[in-house]
Specification:
The protein is mainly beta. 8% of the residues lie in helices and 22% in strands.
Length: 358
């Protein structure tokens, strides 16, 4: 397709990368704003280009120049450009009177020329269908539109873009219910002032999100603490030095007035055993003929503990005594020097102190 032109329009050939950046349209206008430049693709989809953004205009030389390297590289036309795209430049002369003649006024050549050309240009545009709209009116200007004439049915779908909306024009009444979703809220814009009173319910707080920094001092009262039942407390024992299922308060478990160890050790020849029912006794060692070493299951916190030892015998006529001759945090040594090893003798002992390390 080759370029065509008339007295009121210019239509370019199909646009290619080699199409000239500057196009000469070759007709006269009364004012610059009478020139319209339209990008048209092969499906007759039209896009009116904007002077200054997409092209520059020189009415003296009757030329328009693309602001991009080529007409088809304009970012505005990227969605419609095809191999049959072309540029149409046409004139739309206002039909409102340009000259108001007064009785007795001087008729200047310029006024007469303007009045004559306005009628001539309008006739040419009508005859040639300058805008290629197949209609008598080449363009509807603002002055032709009556107040309130543009109703909802006259506005095409998706025709109201951001640039057509005045600042602050979208009021609360214009927003449909449930229309503002998370994607429409800018990050960091919902502050305390935007949250309604009591709107942050339990369901809105994620699991494990309330840390110590979110809790005000003295806010956790007794009423806020769930009372532990027997099953809860028994579940915590076993790993803290107690038998599983036995619940003993720490004030008793670690008190120096509660027995830390007790048991009964046989004193017969070669024996290294302790009787059943002993507490915190890991082992008994026959150190020598008269000595027995007791080793704790749980060590004491230091050696400042007290051991009470008594000798027991099956015969009331037999008397002997035992002495604690050394202590460590892991155990102690009993010496029954005055007693002869026999099945009738045994040592009973109780230990008081603390197994709680600092």
């Amino acid at each position: 397709m080759s370029a065509t032109s008339g007295l009121s329009f210019y239509l370019s050939a199909f646009l290619t990368p080699s199409t000239a950046q500057t196009l000469n349209y070759g007709f006269e206008t009364l004012v610059d704003d009478d020139i319209t430049v339209v990008f048209i693709n092969g499906s007759n989809t039209r896009l009116v280009l904007t002077k200054g953004s997409h092209y520059t205009l020189n009415t003296t030389t009757q030329e328009v120049t693309c602001t991009a390297a080529t007409w088809i590289s304009l970012s505005a036309v990227s969605g419609i450009v095809d191999s049959s795209s072309k540029i149409r430049i046409f004139r739309t002369t206002s039909i409102q009177p340009s000259v108001d003649f007064k009785s007795g006024a001087v008729l200047s050549e310029g006024d007469l020329d303007t009045a004559y050309k306005q009628g001539l240009f309008a006739a040419q545009e009508m005859a040639e269908d300058a805008a290629a709209t197949s209609a008598g009116v080449q363009a509807v200007t603002e002055s032709m539109i009556g107040a309130g004439a543009v109703t909802a049915t006259k506005i095409g779908a998706n025709a109201v873009t951001e640039s057509r909306i005045l600042n602050s024009a979208v009021t609360n009444a214009k927003i449909a219910n449930d229309a503002v979703n998370a994607a429409k809220i800018q990050n960091g814009t919902v502050g305390s002032a935007e949250l309604a009173a009591n709107c942050v319910t339990t369901a809105k707080i994620g699991a494990n999100q309330v840390t110590t920094t979110q809790i005000v001092n003295n806010a956790v009262t007794q009423a806020k603490v769930v009372k532990a039942g027997k099953a809860n407390m028994e579940a915590l024992t076993g790993s803290s030095g107690q038998a599983v299922g036995i619940v003993t308060p720490d004030v008793l478990r670690y008190s120096q007035f509660a027995p830390r160890c007790y048991g009964s050790v046989a004193y017969n020849t070669g024996s290294a055993s302790f009787s059943s029912g002993s507490y915190n006794v890991q082992s008994v060692t026959n150190t020598s003929t008269s000595k027995r070493t007791i080793t704790f299951s749980t060590p004491m916190s230091d050696v400042n503990y007290f051991v009470s030892v008594t000798g027991s015998a099956t015969s009331s006529a037999t008397n002997f005594y035992a002495t604690v001759i050394s202590k460590t945090v892991n155990g102690f040594v009993i010496d029954g020097a005055d007693a002869t090893e026999t099945d009738t003798f045994s040592f009973d002992f109780v230990v008081f102190g603390s197994t709680l390390s600092a």
